[in-house]
Design goal:
By secondary structure, the chain is mainly α. The protein is built from 5 helices and 4 strands; from the N terminus they run ββαββαααα. Helix 1 packs antiparallel against helix 2 and helix 2 runs parallel beside helix 4. The chain starts with 6 loop residues before the first strand and ends with a helix.
Length: about 180
């Protein structure tokens, strides 16, 4: 049906992931890297509360067109840490120069997005004590990844894609609030 593959993770059936037919093996692996993170976090959140129920604030998520509550933002952050890790490795195995460039772009984009969101999430009082520990441990690799070199052209393309997403989001949010 064209467009991005559709994926989902079941909170109630650990390890159950739904995927539309991916376009290629890289898309399949990326979707699994993303969805497995959701499955792991669902299992952990069944054992330990990471956020309190108080607070109805919504946040910008660099991977979504709509604002998200804190628990959902945490889910997106953890899933995109998996996405970032995937692209980090893909940079090393991509044989085609265009594929390597795209892997560098995606790695740069998602490591920056995760770092920004981690800063927001880590500062929220709705995080429980286990939530604080989880965010710190989950985002620790970002400090190393942010020091890894990425070609300038890939960094600039990543920055433009992130800015475009934010611009669309802000435009939609303004339009929705004006209605």
């Amino acid at each position: 049906s064209g467009g991005a593959p559709q994926t989902a993770t079941s909170r109630w059936a650990f390890g159950a992931v739904g995927l539309s037919l991916p376009g290629d093996d890289v898309a399949a692996a990326l979707a699994l890297a993303h969805e497995v993170q959701h499955a792991k976090l669902c299992a952990l959140m069944d054992l330990l509360p990471l956020v309190t129920d108080r607070g109805q604030r919504l946040y910008y998520a660099p991977w979504r067109p709509d604002p998200r509550p804190l628990a959902s933002l945490l889910h997106g952050l953890y899933a995109h840490l998996g996405v970032t890790r995937f692209w980090r490795r893909q940079r090393e195995v991509a044989a085609d120069p265009a594929e390597a460039h795209q892997a560098n772009v995606e790695f740069a984009r998602w490591r920056s997005a995760c770092a920004r969101v981690a800063t927001v999430v880590a500062g929220r009082p709705e995080l429980t004590a286990p939530g604080v520990v989880f965010v710190e441990a989950a985002t620790r690799p970002l400090r190393r990844w942010r020091r890894e070199p990425v070609p300038r052209a890939a960094r600039e393309e990543a920055r433009r894609a992130a800015a475009e997403h934010r611009g669309h989001w802000e435009g939609f949010f303004r339009m929705t609030n004006e209605s």
